[in-house]
Please model this.
Amino acid sequence: MLRSATNFALEKVIDGVAKAAANMSDAGMLRIISLLRTLMPADWYTNALNAAEKFVKEKHPGVEAARRIGRSLSPHVRKMMVRNFVLGVLIEGNKVRKKFYDEEGFNAPPMLMMSPTSVCNYKCYGCYADGEDWKTELEPELIHRLVEEAKGIGSRLISLTGGEPFLRKDLMDIMSKHRDVMFSVYTNGSRVTPAMLDSFAEWGNVHLSFSVEGPQEFTDDRRGAGAWSIVMQQMDECRKRGLFFGFGCTASRKNLEAAVSDEFIQTMVDKGALYGWYLNLMPTGPVESQDLMLTAAQRYWMRERAGVIRRTFPIYLVDFVNEAWLVGGCMAGGRKFVHINSNGDVEPCMFIHYAVDNVRNKSLREVLRSDFMKKLREAVPHDARDARPCPIIDYPDRLRAAIETTGAYKTTPDAHQLVTDWAPYLDEYGAEFGRLDEKHVANVNDPELVALRAEMPRPEVPLGVEVGKRYGPRRDAAKETCGTGCGCADTAPVARAPESQAP
Ligand code: SF4
Model:
């Protein structure tokens, strides 16, 4: 009885937050912050709520991004976002994670990343998923089990990536059954139908991150002719339904300048995208992908540019690797997430294709205890400012040591290049970015840095030039149907490449 009275009161406050979010005037936002203070235990999120209050009072430009989100969502999606995020992730999820900490001595991640399939109907150069040589899938029962286990340890955010997740038609059933979980799906948009979007509007627990590479010519160059138009149409449809959606962009040596240009960001805002996630192209694909990685100078410029965009445009934008201080440093190894690949291997990050465990024979809780995950978790912070956060590109020696000392096995055919052929390049790369960052700390007005900030380090790889040896011409995204060659959108039964098997 007492519990139901408490829940009733909580529901009322949650509804109050959702209603206030519709208005999003300054007074409305201050009311939300005040309501959130009543919901959160006193010592939780105090700094974040204080900062949010200060931003609203000082009319920080970033507040416009929050205002846009509140006003763009349909009433039901808004309510479900508040329920699932505030109640599910921040309150109930945190309580469960605190209990997990007491039992295990380390934090459970708030987010689980999963790749239900390695299959993709696109063929983007440098893609970490590398669906070229091997095709694997997680069975629906296994995905259900993982979602249940994730809830059980307080992970209420599930991120689905791939391959193209929507080649799996059974995903709809899975997401529909777990409406108390927020699903974030990274998609090329080509397999999303109006009926699916109607369902997302009805459920309110699914948001879509559409993959683009900057403006049309850059998106179609990497992802295939027609890829941009498909995303533009899907964004229009999402906006009409009041869905929460945004874009995901991989910054590379080919597209950097265009991918963060005023024109591109304005297009995304005009299309209704409410957030943008940037990731660096990482050296994990099947081609010599270090040829496409941002140079150290471009990386420095990129992180400065991301801050400028946030202060200029009403869109919530994070450059995850270069601005890792915004997300508390490297999130890998279970600190904030782990990645279950399409074979069930547990990878610390979707860009680290090594594992010591597979979820087919261990629980989620068990795999988080491994020495491999522990070593990567405990290495954070790699530097005091979380400005050089990444064990792949900033401290490759630490990643190599973690792989070697724990006997981690590779999970994709070419993953070993990270610790063999590419090691000297990555060591040099990490040192060069470190040199720039140390200069930044010592004197932000150092002439070299001033010059870098003033002038974009130009892209070095022109469009249309193939990088690496194994890729033929891009597919035509508008015409292609599925990645299996069978001509339909279904994924075929899959076979694991022998060299990727767990030992
Ligand atoms: S390993 Fe690198 S890319 Fe992965 S979460 Fe950590 S910082 Fe980000």
Q: What stands out?
A: Residues 75-104 form the longest helix (30 residues). Residues 465-478, 480-503 have pLDDT under 50 and may be disordered. The longest strand covers residues 206-212.
